[in-house]
């Protein structure tokens, strides 16, 4: 999904953050997307996890762990330079995932009406999450 969103006009030059519940999942997702583009991690697709940061000025997609995202949004509540936040594997509910979504919703509703939020899960009942996110387009 993140690679498909890169060319969307609403994104412009802003980044996409992809949240993964674990470091291994984050590393594998970043590796797979970078390979798809024929690049190394740290070019178009970067990685931020505890003890592993590989991003550059060219990075447009940052795959981050949920804990790292919580620190990012607390440090920058407006998420400057971010156009979309994608919560992957949301069915693996955790305190960091729930807090991250709550903070992202606060950012979207109070500071950044243009911020896009997407919650992804193969097994989660989407109705409750859809109601929480609202019907923004």
How would you explain this protein's 3D organization?
- Helix 3 packs parallel to helix 4.
- The radius of gyration is 14 Å and the shape is globular.
- It has helices at 2-5, 23-37, 66-75, 95-110, 126-133, and strands spanning 15-20, 45-49, 52-54, 61-65, 82-87, 116-119.
- The two termini are 17 Å apart.
- Helix 4 (95-110) links the parallel strand 5 and strand 6.
- With 137 residues, it is α/β, with parallel strands linked by helices.
- It has a six-stranded mixed beta sheet with strand order 3-2-4-1-5-6, with helices on both faces.
- The longest helix is centred in the C-terminal third of the chain and has 16 residues, at 95-110.
- Helices cover 39% and strands 21% of the residues.
Describe the secondary structure blueprint for this structure.
Layout (H helix, E strand, L loop, with lengths): L1 H4 L9 E6 L2 H15 L7 E5 L2 E3 L6 E5 H10 L6 E6 L7 H16 L5 E4 L6 H8 L4
Parallel strand pairs: 1-4, 1-5, 2-4, 5-6
Antiparallel strand pairs: 2-3
């Amino acid at each position: 999904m993140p690679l498909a969103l890169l060319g969307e006009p609403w994104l412009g030059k802003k980044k996409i953050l992809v949240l993964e519940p674990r470091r291994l999942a984050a590393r594998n997702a970043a590796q797979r997307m970078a390979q798809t583009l024929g690049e190394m991690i740290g070019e178009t697709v970067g990685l931020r996890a505890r003890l592993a940061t590989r991003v550059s000025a060219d990075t447009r997609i940052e795959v981050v762990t949920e804990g790292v995202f919580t620190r990012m949004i607390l440090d920058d509540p407006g998420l400057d330079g971010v156009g979309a936040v994608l919560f992957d594997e949301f069915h693996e509910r955790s305190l960091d995932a729930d807090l991250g979504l709550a903070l992202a919703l606060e950012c979207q509703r109070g500071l950044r009406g243009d911020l896009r939020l997407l919650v992804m899960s193969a097994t989660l009942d989407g109705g409750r999450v859809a109601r929480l996110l609202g019907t923004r387009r």
